[in-house]
Amino acid sequence: MKKLVIACGLALSFNAFASGHWGYSGEEGPEHWAELSPEFSACHAQNQSPVNLTGAIKASMAPFKLSYKAGAKDMVNNGHTLQVDYAPGSFLEIDGIRFELKQFHFHTPSENLIEGQSFPMEIHFVHASEKGEITVLAVMVKEGKENPTLAALWKEMPKEGAQIDYQQSVNAQALLPKGRHYYRFNGSLTTPPCTEGVRWLVLKDPIAASKAQIASFEKTMGHPNSRPVQPINARDVLKD
């Protein structure tokens, strides 16, 4: 068993999506992100996300603490995903640091892989500390029964550039599995500017959504919105 070595994250903006022209295919696709702007140079750095979670090392990792309450404020279609912005007051605690939930968003298919397995969808819950450090909690979504929380959130899906307001009746915790076992690695934002120093926690257990729900998201976006997996390089992937 390996003892967890805590790496300090960089101070980052909690907004995981840079402005500017970038996309998921062609000349603006992931393989060209670092060339599109000097601000995106980190996209060719060494500790990038997502990754294939394989060869994980059993480590002494304390459970992270979650305190989520209903707080979904609005959902924005920024052309890259559907992003649900969250009201203050919900947080994740790890390494003795409190990270407030700022937003969550969706990727299809999944960006991270678990032992080489891809899932139809992945949800990223983006948290920021008072110093601006980022922790992302990732949840895989498998095809199964209709998900009632997604049904409530996606009752109406905004077109690109549009926003839908909520009355904060949705609790993000309803989109988490019962199990809290997880993988951990140090990585980056999975979209430009690809800033590194991000704590990644990927839950081992998936949640379910119906085939129709996943297809509805895919239709709304009009394209896959997943970055290919990046090399692990010298990093360790840890598991509890």
From TrEMBL:
What stretches pass through the bilayer? none
| PROSITE patterns according to UniProt | ALPHA_CA_1, ALPHA_CA_2
Name the enzyme's class: lyase
Q: Which SUPFAM superfamilies match?
A: Carbonic anhydrase
Q: Where is the signal peptide?
A: 1-18
E.C. no: 4.2.1.1
Annotated region Disordered: the residues are: 221-240
The UniProt family comment states: Belongs to the alpha-carbonic anhydrase family.
Full protein name: Carbonic anhydrase
What organism is listed for this UniProt entry? Leminorella grimontii
